[in-house]
């Protein structure tokens, strides 16, 4: 994907309700774009609605959904999708992404559950993504997720992700922290996994912190600073796929705003360092998929 095709550019931060005040004086030189979960802002009026509108008028925005539940056995929620479609139009949202997981059946589970890595699930999930894209009238991006168990697994995680993205003909949201967390929890090489992902479909990336429960168990919390190995993996992503828009996720345990902005600035430093380098055409997967230089 060329630079001109990215929905946003530079380094961004997730806008959370608790950050509405602290980020109010941030400039577009410090933060290039912001991201919200649309479910948290649909039909919000009053003081918070006005504040949110002030942000969307100043910054480019993208949306990262929480409730699409793309792998759920339950029917797609077209009422929610209708609200999201209106929200995208109302606030001129540049991109809509969701998790490659599910979070509901007859009720919401309030957690992101792993879709079984099976050929049947690939076909089922890809079909639902195509339905969503048709309804919204635009491409969406699916994110690789963290997970702590793989029920009914018949294929490798990397093959599952690539198959869904290809069959759905959708975009990809690259979550670097999730790769690192999964690599520790499931014992694989993070860089090798990164190399196998569909870099030509990436529209933007996520970077975040996590919690170390044990030496071999990390929990994807978005409640801590980004650690050095995750920064290094982000740099490797830039090296392999070219510099892409990257957003810092922080959901709670917020530091002082200057410290939060220091992490956004660190993204910018990494991006500048890799901006002059362009990845060459190379075979980066066992299936012989070609990654193209941007």
Spatial arrangement of strands, main beta sheet: 1-2-3-4-7-8-9-12
How many domains? 1
CATH architecture field: Alpha-Beta Barrel
Structural class: alpha/beta
What this model shows, in words?
The protein starts with 10 loop residues before the first strand and ends with a strand. A hairpin with a 2-residue loop joins strand 10 and strand 11. Helix 3 packs parallel to helix 4 and helix 7 packs parallel to helix 8. The protein has 294 residues and is an alpha/beta fold. It is built from eight helices and 14 strands. Strands 1-2-3-4-7-8-9-12 form an eight-stranded parallel β-barrel. Strands 5-6 form a two-stranded antiparallel sheet. The C terminus is likely disordered. The protein is globular.
Please give a quick description of this structure:
Strand 3 (61-64), helix 2 (78-90) and strand 4 form a beta-alpha-beta unit.
What is the fold's blueprint, element by element?
Elements (H helix, E strand, L loop, with lengths): L10 E4 L18 E4 L9 H13 L2 E4 L13 H13 L5 E4 L2 E3 L3 E6 L5 H18 L4 E3 L13 H12 L2 E5 H11 L3 H6 L6 E7 L2 E4 L2 E3 L8 H14 L4 E4 L7 H18 L7 E2 L6 E2 L3
Parallel strand pairs: 1-2, 1-12, 2-3, 3-4, 4-7, 7-8, 8-9, 9-12
Antiparallel strand pairs: 5-6, 10-11, 13-14
What descriptors fit this protein?
single chain; 294 residues; alpha/beta; TIM Barrel; eight-stranded parallel beta barrel; two-stranded antiparallel ribbon; 14 strands; globular; disordered C terminus
């Amino acid at each position: 994907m060329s630079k001109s095709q990215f929905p946003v550019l530079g380094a961004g931060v997730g806008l959370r309700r608790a950050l509405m005040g602290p980020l109010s004086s941030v400039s577009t030189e410090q933060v290039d774009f912001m991201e919200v979960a649309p479910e948290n802002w649909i039909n919000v009026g009053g003081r918070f609605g006005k504040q949110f509108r002030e942000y969307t008028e100043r910054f480019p925005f993208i949306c990262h959904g929480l409730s699409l539940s793309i792998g759920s056995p339950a029917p797609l929620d077209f009422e929610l999708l209708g609200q999201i479609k209106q929200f995208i139009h109302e606030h001129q949202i540049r991109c809509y992404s969701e998790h490659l997981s599910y979070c509901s059946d007859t009720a919401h589970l309030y957690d992101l559950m792993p879709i079984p890595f099976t050929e049947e699930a690939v076909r089922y999930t890809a079909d639902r993504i195509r339905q969503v894209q048709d309804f919204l009238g635009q491409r969406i991006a699916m994110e690789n997720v963290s997970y702590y168990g793989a029920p009914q697994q018949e294929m490798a995680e990397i093959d599952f992700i690539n198959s869904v993205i290809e069959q759905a003909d959708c975009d990809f949201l690259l979550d670097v922290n999730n790769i690192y967390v999964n690599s520790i929890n499931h014992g694989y090489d993070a860089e090798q996994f990164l190399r196998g992902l569909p870099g030509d479909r990436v529209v933007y990336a996520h970077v975040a912190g996590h919690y170390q429960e044990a030496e071999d168990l990390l929990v994807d919390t978005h409640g801590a600073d980004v650690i050095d190995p995750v920064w290094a993996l982000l740099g490797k992503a830039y090296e392999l796929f070219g510099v892409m828009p990257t957003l810092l996720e922080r959901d709670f345990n917020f530091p002082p705003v200057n410290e939060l902005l220091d992490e956004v600035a660190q993204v910018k430093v990494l991006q500048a360092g890799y901006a002059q380098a362009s990845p060459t055409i190379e075979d980066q997967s066992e299936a012989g998929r070609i990654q193209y230089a941007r």
